[in-house]
Fold this protein.
Amino acid sequence: MRPHDDDVLRYSPAHARPAVFAAGAEIAFARPASAADVESAVIRFFATLGPGLRDACCALVGHIKCTIAAPGAGDFVFHSTVLGAKPRMTDGVARSPTQTATLTVNVIVFGVDERALPDIVTGAWAQALDAEIVWQR
């Protein structure tokens, strides 16, 4: 078996190559955010991200995952493998409202130009959050 290399992949159709975006961000909410506020923001993110990926010719979702860690308030972990579906919360607790949080997002999709993916993902978060968000890539 030949080792994995770009020479072999150049014969693969474009939709067979993954586009990956992974980044972290610091979030400062406009007002203290409750667990329901955070979950609503994540649902809005997924609802906005889906059409953006579809418009970018997404052929397959490997996964879309995010974690929102709120010091002293708990962590939220969400994921989806289907465009347009409500994300699943796989873990998370919220003990009190939070003013700040750390977001970690990981998106693997197929058929999307990887150079466009950061703007699609960060744009969807900008529309979903009533907060200041500073990305660290």
